[in-house]
Amino acid sequence: MSVNNNKIEKLRVIISGGGTGGHIFPAIAIANAIKQKAPEAEILFVGALGRIEMEKVPEAGYKIVGLPVAGFQRRLTFKNFSFFTKLFKSIKKAGEIIEQFQPNFAVGVGGYASGPLLYKAGKKNIPYIIQEQNSYAGVTNKLLAKKAKKICVAYEGLEKFFQKEKIIITGNPVRQNLLLPNVDKAEAYRFFGLQPTKKTVLIVGGSGGARSINEAVIKNLEEIRNNKNIQFIFQTGKVYFPNVIKNIGENIPENLKVAEFISKMEYAYQIADLVVTRAGAGTISELCIMGKPAILVPSPNVAEDHQTKNAMALVKKNAALLVSDFDAPDLLMKNTLNIINNDEQLNSLKTNILKLAIHNSAEKIADVIFNLRNV
User: Fold this and answer.
1) What's the rounded Cα separation, in Å, for the pair 270 and 116?
2) In this structure, are 203 and 341 located in the same domain?
């Protein structure tokens, strides 16, 4: 049964996707932008059970429903036997959610839940848009794009994946607390127990952490200790934290601040002179907006190796440096110390990455929704 949009006056939007902070923080930003333009709008999130969105979305004040969907493993594993069962259950439940909520628009931000929800939305003639975060489109989005009204992208050159007339360059929304005006730099230094007179390196492997980046820090504790004029903020990721602390031991360098998760990322960005991180699309958008020199370590465990492609889009414009995941344990810290001590290179990277920033992305995506609604 198709939803009768003529009977629905109030804007009712389903936002689907998640799986990582890089997907869900932009999704929340889009929801907030919609509410700012239309306070009466009703928004429902659809995510994947057990993933980060089931916690972060309610914290942001929105209702979320979970699907049992999970990712398909690209290596031979028994987990893939349950993949199709979960997928079919998720498609069925997505249909039930749509019938109950009666949306007149849907938005897919990527992640496990986007596929089943947008597939059912298309079947029920509910208009939807896709937010493609990466410079290389994944298989699911390429399939979903056939019925999408518009595709909001952050990179040029995606005509090779999508119909040109559907593409709108909006950029990727970033965590809104990063955009807070007048973040107190002195307070940020106090928060981390750091000194304003020293340069600061922020090392973070995404919301889940990164094994290779963690290994790079552990292998080079003496190098860190010996560079007393540099201070480091190091996010390990919750899963890796106990092992990192065990390997570092009691003799932790005074200039190394270790945390499993950084709650005040706006503070960390504010004082970072250099950021060492994965190359997720959301992270790259944050780096561009904040104008932060960066060394990118693309994750090898993602579809179509899209993080390497994301990183190369910056590297080709001299806006970031790349160290492979394989080389990270041996080369990452050496490169980090070389760059943080090179003011000319830091300034060049900052200048070039700022040129790539696209501002007000969430508002632009909300505008796409309202414009389509008025057609």
Assistant:
1) 38
2) yes
264 and 318 both lie in a single domain: yes
Contact 108, 130 (CB under 8 A): yes
Q: Are residues 369 and 329 in the same domain?
A: no
Q: Given this model, what pLDDT does residue 74 score?
A: 53
Range list of β-strands (E), 162-244? 167-169, 199-204, 230-235
Each residue of 140-152: pLDDT tens digit?
888 999 999 999 9
The strand pair at 105-108 and 63-67 is best described as: unpaired
Residue-range definition of the domain harbouring residue 208? 177-354
Token pair recorded at residue 240: 């890796």
Let me know how long the chain is: 375
* pLDDT, position 4: 44
Per-residue exposure over 19-55, b if at least 16 CB sit within 10 Å of its own CB, e if not: bbbbbbbbbbbbbbbbbeebeebbbbbbbbbebbbbe
| Residue whose entry in the numeric block shows the structure tokens 């290994």 | 215
